[in-house]
Amino acid sequence: MTPTPNDRSTLFPGASEGAPGRRGIRSAQLGAAVNALLALIKILAGIIGSTYALVADGIESLADIASSLIVWGGLSIAELPPDENHPFGHGKAEALAAALVSLLLLGAAAGIAIQSVIEIRTPHRLPAPWTLIVLVSVIIIKFVLARRVSAIGASIGSTAVSADARHHVSDAVTSAAAFIGITIALIGGRVRGGSGWESADDWAAVVAAAVIAYNGVSMLVPALHDLMDRMPGPAVVQPIRDAAESVDGVCFVEQLLVRKTGLHYDVALHVQADPCLTLLEAHSLGGAVKAAIRARQPAAAHIHVHMEPYLPS
């Protein structure tokens, strides 16, 4: 019988309250609101202050808004209970959201790089000095936001939220690059009358685009690992194995398979035990193994225990 939404606590013990998902969604909502305000400020300041580096930074913030909305949607879908067509839940939506955010970053990097080259080849005025104040404010806000979102992503084990945090970091980096470029343009312009220094902030935008592209690739890799059901590292797998082997009556754990699905882990293992056990005793032992794994790794959701006879050679 396929689990119904009311059976969520049975199939995904500890997940019914959805607290980790709600924390991730709130961080995405906060990020979207902050990015919307910063994008407006940076684009207007860049246009008025004659600095494309600041405009490019604002465009990157627009990408941040989209990324936060994607993370929000992905986590909301991932938290849906299992249904007839998705008996293992909807956790893959979280990894899909992370992959989309990464691709969005790569697209933003390409767009900024292309426009920066165009601006370098186009003569324009020196940036306005007051744009540096805007950038300093943005850098501080973004680093604070990135630290907050990163902490949430690490605490709930969300690839998508962690990707969103990296997106905030990349925005802070583009702002820092713009600050450096504008500063060079202003100092050089004062020393040499402005000739030849106007494009310094555009070159800063090119550097920022490279940083954004690097972050996009760095975030895409773990998202693809989750989508391809790659085994987590020893930090996740070994405690699960230790918990199973610690159960009285377990002789050997022959096979252990773990995959990350959203904010949870799906676990399948072959447990060897005394071949003289009755079917009821073997079933009870399997239940004890599940309980031990969930006690050691609360994020373990669906756990399948296959009992086998222990036949030492």
CATH domain class of the largest domain:
Mainly Alpha
- Judged by helices, strands and strand pairing, the structural class is mainly alpha
Mean pLDDT: 81
Q: What overall geometry do the principal axes of the alpha carbons give? A: elongated
Question: How many angstroms separate the termini?
Answer: 39 Å
Largest sheet descriptor: 3 strands, mixed
Which topology of the largest domain does CATH recognise? Alpha-lytic protease prodomain-like
Short description:
This protein is mainly α. It folds into 2 domains: 5-227, Up-down Bundle (Alpha-lytic protease prodomain-like); 234-309, Alpha-Beta Plaits (2-Layer Sandwich), CATH 3.30.70.1350. The chain has helices at residues 8-11, 19-48, 52-78, 92-120, 131-156, 159-192, 200-227, 234-245, 279-296, and strands at residues 250-261, 264-273, 300-309.
Describe this structure in words.
It contains nine helices and three strands; from the N terminus they run ααααααααββαβ. The chain has 313 residues and is mainly alpha-helical. It folds into two domains: 5-227, Alpha-lytic protease prodomain-like; 234-309, 2-Layer Sandwich (Alpha-Beta Plaits). It has a three-stranded mixed beta sheet with strand order 1-2-3. Residues 1-18 have low confidence and may be disordered.
